[in-house]
Amino acid sequence: MSETNQTKPEVGVSGRKIIYDKDGKPCRSCNTLLDFQMATGKVSAPAKKDKYREDPPDVEKLGNSSWTFIHSLCSKYPEKPSTQDKVEINGFFNVLSRMYPCTWCADDFKKYLKEHPLDNTDNEGLNRWLCGAHNEVNKKLGKKEFDCNLWKKRWRDGWD
Ligand SMILES: Cc1cc2nc3c(=O)[nH]c(=O)nc-3n(C[C@H](O)[C@H](O)[C@H](O)COP(=O)(O)OP(=O)(O)OC[C@H]3O[C@@H](n4cnc5c(N)ncnc54)[C@H](O)[C@@H]3O)c2cc1C
């Protein structure tokens, strides 16, 4: 291995290739934070873990990843949705409430959907509705409710 390769890791902790800027420094916004910190020597590389041999997700990991996906998807719902957009977002939530892998979570979600039909009129309506649906689960689990006025900062625009 050349000296350059020794000082400039090619692969990060995440298993992704480290991306370098034209000046040869690790790119801050092209790498994961941990990979960037490792490549800049701020943290040492932890023992290698084979990401392809992780266990299936438990209820927490599945839930967190799912909410991330669902909120991110809904954050891009159009301001003026077409009829097709409306039909497809209804279909998405119907599938979710039928097929979410945690079956007792899915059953409660299906009940919520029936009692609180989703608001597909526009971007704001859908995201407010989703925030309410997520808060219902938070309440059930004894967690703090999220302030729905902040949904855009959390899922679309960022905090500054
Ligand atoms: C459809 C669905 C139903 C579920 N039902 C159950 C269940 O019945 N029982 C169970 O044990 N688990 C259930 N879960 C999982 C549970 O909701 C959590 O995902 C899990 O407990 C992990 O919680 P967390 O603390 O990582 O944060 P999560 O609740 O996963 O939230 C992730 C992030 O979303 C943000 N957030 C939190 N609340 C809101 C909100 N109201 N609006 C916008 N953003 C918000 C916060 O920044 C938070 O860090 C369900 C998940 C889904 C997707």
From TrEMBL:
PROSITE patterns: ERV_ALR
Cross-referenced InterPro entries: ALR/ERV, ERV/ALR_sulphydryl_oxid_sf, ERV/ALR_sulphydryl_oxidase
Protein keywords: Disulfide bond, FAD, Flavoprotein, Oxidoreductase
UniProt enzyme class: oxidoreductase
Reaction(s) the record says it catalyses: 2 R'C(R)SH + O2 = R'C(R)S-S(R)CR' + H2O2
GO molecular function: flavin adenine dinucleotide binding; flavin-dependent sulfhydryl oxidase activity
Cofactor(s) needed by this chain: FAD
Pfam families given in the database record: Evr1_Alr
Gene3D superfamilies on file: 4.10.320.60, ERV/ALR sulfhydryl oxidase domain
The protein's Enzyme Commission number: 1.8.3.2
Single biological process term from Gene Ontology: mitochondrial disulfide relay system
Positions of the ERV/ALR sulfhydryl oxidase domain: 55-155
Full protein name: Sulfhydryl oxidase
